[in-house]
Each structure stands twice: as structure tokens, then as C-alpha cells.
């Protein structure tokens, strides 16, 4: 807990109230040392509980000042480990994580906010 009285655990209740289960695949990129070609692979999908919402509902969850816009967004506990290029499927649609923004409240690292792009629907 920080001096502000804000704790990472404060996000736990929000996650409990609004989370949905996504089929999440972690991405790994490797570079061939001889050719420089990149290869992207995905781990087997696993279920993760994250807050998910589409662009049209962003105003419900976001504060003023976010300039990057995606097709959808996820919010995850810091221990979940979401990262750029991971992908997930929900409601028959597949998205990839375009960018991850650490969100702080009163100086406390509270959650990771993922800007996502639609791949297939």
C-alpha cells in the first residue's frame, strides 16, 4: 500500500464486477540471427478473466486524455502480463493487443490497459 491509501487490490473489486473470460494466446517473436526474419508463434490458448469493452463503450471506463483509439480495450491486473502482439478471442471475434499502457492512480501502478485491434469477426 502506498502513502496515498491506494492499493493494487483496489482494482480487484472492479475486475470481479466487470471481468469476462477471454481465450487468450501469448505471442512470442523470435528473430533469425542469420537472415533477420521474424517468426511469431502463439502459446496454446488459456482462459483469462479481463475487463473487455469495445470502442463504442469506451467512455464508460476511460478518463479524458487517452489519445490512442482501437477497436476494443482490455484492462488487466498487473500480474496477468498482457503484452503487445498477444491475441484473444471473445464472442467469436479475434483481437490482437496493439499497445499496453500501464495505468497509475495517485502514483500507484494499478492495472494494464490494452488497446486492441479486430483481426476477424
Give a structural overview.
By secondary structure, the chain is mostly beta strands. It has one domain: Thrombin, subunit H (Beta Barrel), CATH 2.40.10. The protein contains one helix and eight strands; from the N terminus they run H-E-E-E-E-E-E-E-E. The protein has one helix at residues 10-18; strands at residues 20-25, 27-31, 38-42, 46-54, 72-77, 87-90, 93-105, 108-120. The strands form two sheets. Strands 1-4-5-8-7-6 form a six-stranded antiparallel beta barrel. A two-stranded antiparallel sheet has the order 2-3. The longest helix is centred in the first third of the chain and has 9 residues, at 10-18. The mean pLDDT is 84.
What's the SSE blueprint?
Blueprint: H1 10-18, E1 20-25, E2 27-31, E3 38-42, E4 46-54, E5 72-77, E6 87-90, E7 93-105, E8 108-120
Antiparallel strand pairs: 1-4, 1-6, 2-3, 4-5, 5-8, 6-7, 7-8
Radius of gyration: 16 Å
- Shape annotation: globular
User: SSE order in H/E notation?
Assistant: HEEEEEEEE
Number of helices: 1
Q: Fraction of residues in helices? A: under 10%
The chain-level mean pLDDT equals 84
